[in-house]
Please model this.
Amino acid sequence: MSKERLIYLPLGGAGEIGMNAYVYGWGKPGHERLILVDLGVTFPDMDTTPGVNLIMPDISYLKERADRLEAIFITHAHEDHVGAVGLLWPELRAPVHARAFTGHLAQLKLEEAGHSADAVNIVGAWPEAVEAGPFRVSFLPISHSIPESAGLVIETPAGRIVHTGDFKLDPKPGVGEGWDPALWRKATEGRVRALVCDSTNVFSPHPGRSEADLVEPIAKLVAEVPHMMVATTFASNVARVKTLAEAGHAAGREVCLLGRAMRRMIEAAIRTGVIADFPRTITPEDARDLPRERLMLIVTGSQGERRAASAQLARGGPYLGLQMAEGDTFLFSSKTIPGNERGVGRVHNAFSEMGVDVVAEDDRYHVSGHANRPDLETMHALVDPEVVIPMHGEHRHLREHVKLAEANGRAALLVVNGAMADLSGAKARIVEHVDADRVYLDGNVLIGALDGVVRDRIRLALNGHVIVNVILEDDEPLGEPWVETFGLAETGRSGAPLAEVLEADLGQFLMRAERKTLRNDDSLEKDLKRIVRKTAENEIGHKPEITIVVSRLEG
Amino acid sequence: MSKERLIYLPLGGAGEIGMNAYVYGWGKPGHERLILVDLGVTFPDMDTTPGVNLIMPDISYLKERADRLEAIFITHAHEDHVGAVGLLWPELRAPVHARAFTGHLAQLKLEEAGHSADAVNIVGAWPEAVEAGPFRVSFLPISHSIPESAGLVIETPAGRIVHTGDFKLDPKPGVGEGWDPALWRKATEGRVRALVCDSTNVFSPHPGRSEADLVEPIAKLVAEVPHMMVATTFASNVARVKTLAEAGHAAGREVCLLGRAMRRMIEAAIRTGVIADFPRTITPEDARDLPRERLMLIVTGSQGERRAASAQLARGGPYLGLQMAEGDTFLFSSKTIPGNERGVGRVHNAFSEMGVDVVAEDDRYHVSGHANRPDLETMHALVDPEVVIPMHGEHRHLREHVKLAEANGRAALLVVNGAMADLSGAKARIVEHVDADRVYLDGNVLIGALDGVVRDRIRLALNGHVIVNVILEDDEPLGEPWVETFGLAETGRSGAPLAEVLEADLGQFLMRAERKTLRNDDSLEKDLKRIVRKTAENEIGHKPEITIVVSRLEG
Model:
């Protein structure tokens, strides 16, 4: 019989920045006991996923082996790590382990999806550990842009794995535990089989900066603002929200939080003891009555999201009774995530049109939550693993991370979504490939990325839609064909309405068509489509999507 | 009678980076003689303009006054300045003036659109001048990222206007004239009524760098590459293409240009004498036979455009017989324009998957073509105008540029697309507003941005499409309703096919409907749509676009 093995299989997160889901297993091939680390979402865009609500990893591999799944571990509460717990947990039904703040938010996700929050088990930091089949897992605190982020120390029969989670090396992150190299050294000392490591900022050449570096610049900016001060950042960046709020108070302003996600995060942080001393805030109702120079709003929407508070304020009207005005200042205490530039630009320009002074993309007021290139090298050196396995990156990040490790004389292995690595041999290597695509939450339905539904929507958006209605009685046309167009120019080259030109051409065809053509649904539809395509291309230069509706009556 | 006035009216470019079109006029209000500076396009995106081919300014204002349009001046040959000449010139039919390289490319645009190239008049540099009604216009050479870029010195009865065009202050731009402050001082000395000035890089705090700074780093990179070298940049950046080609030759490589736009630009530069000494190139056919370490490709597609050479190579198969392989190097000698990050990322990741080493977003291998903040201040000081009018920017850039001028004690005026400024009074001010929206080339049809055609396509992409077919005979349903869905999940909450659930609900309604409902087209359609919306929302959580086709027969 084959020997037991230790496997690593990313189902999401190794090939994108988003929807993290990493599987580890131990046992004989096909009989491994499994654990899952993180279960996140990624966000749709108009280019590739119009109309989609959320994107999640395809966890078919785990569903089919749910009886072998011992536990789910969530490293931290960012949506790309915890966002799919509410939707996908019912397909797995394994216990969910997390630290208090993360666990609290995972519980809310489960409850919102209509499930009991009992599946979530709150775990203390290392050296506390969870036994999960052949695995023993501890949460090792590390700094990131959200409180209570943790790496995982995973003890396995084939040796120890260190899974960093998202991290940066920040000794003073403002809220939550700072980077503690002594703690990490102690918890990871001895042989480490593999370091599975965040790759997000591998292209950033300089050491990362501390959240603490922002306190003074932000305080200075807020103190100098003449009218209303409004700032946005990620709702989950509790330390940043706190820094902003404290700057507001120091400048004699009352602070009002706008946006459900932000209030929810602060509440979660207070309830779980992550922060004890969040500055006093007031409600939008109370804020309305204050002179604007005494007011500071901290709002959601740092990525220009259309429904968030920043975009609402950018529309110009009152939002919850509050309204921007000329002379106000708006601070993006954030970085625009690649792909969101247009949305952020829209908000920025809208504020500019109102005469609001916007401060954006200014390093004085934002630091990244991820380890830069030299910080990754520090982590490699500290953990000193037998192999480095990059995760949390697009292919280019993973590959660059491999090259970085190899340049320092370390073994490294590039493992993308769906590739299963065997970590138990002398040399880690890919041994299998499983399907690891994407699943879309579309409205309230889960659909596969390859189902063609979204592809059809993209085709409608690019090409428009022509609907042809033909009625046949005893295989003879009854009346004229009727055409409706959707998303196409009304008139084209001939100057006549497109629908009428199409109707005329189709009518002519039907009049002349032989009975055997009219009798055969497939060939009739093919002929009608050919005529629509040709006429549309000639009239308007578009090849539309076409739906032919043929109704057959018997006389 | 009212007095004569000097007007400035941007129809495009003052509120976006793209589709530049600036009108100047002199005369009594409503009777001004007009000139147009630039006539460019902007490019569509999936977010806001799916399926659109090109975006152009709405020049209705000029069309209605074409008899008063004296001339069109093109400052340089970038698509956002010359791209609409082929499509829109027929609506204006005024002479087009440009320098040789720009004019040659404008002629090609006209010919491709089926018009004579005779409208284009080639003009030498300042002090040569074109008389155009009350205006006297000279082309004043300035450095930019394309050869023969020019500012315009526009002499008017109300004083001189300096229109910078796109520019940077580069004394050594590689190809074409360098920044020559003595020339500019001489040509603009004395009273300048207004400086109409590029705003693109107003947020870039440091002085711009020279094209010449790239020569050594690029040569060094190319010399060190072990296998095939491939580089991309803007096709129109002739100086960069030349620098890349020379680096290739210096490293003992043969150079092959891939992409129609790039070959066309180099040909235009050679034909018009802009470059005399472009390095020898070989054809793709010849390139195939060379060992890859002796080859350098220079290719189009620096913005990840799907049809350009870089994206074709990124697909992995052979393109014109050439194919990327592990160990090759790909250089983006370019910067990603905001909004194109996803496309560029796709190309980058595809190369990464092939084992190609990609160099991207590296300042050593790219400089911007636009003047940075301190360079703008240099230009303001040199020309010393009575008023600074920012152009070529989104609203945020224009506003920041106004603030920059004002901070230095200068008068400045923010003029956006459609706002008409009177420059003849003591103080420049906005006096009128005209419609200045956008026009889309959609297939081969020009449609207005507000026509709703593209909005319908976006709705189809977000919501999908349901088509309902109902036949009534003598106001009674004949058979069952028939439903087709497009871009929607096939099955929803109930587990039954969505189309069947819709058909059942609609069938029930029709069976029970009163004759007066069935008789009235409007109320019947309204009722049917309501049922589709409700059922679809319940089944799949989407509210689709709906087309109801009711056919009425008489028995």
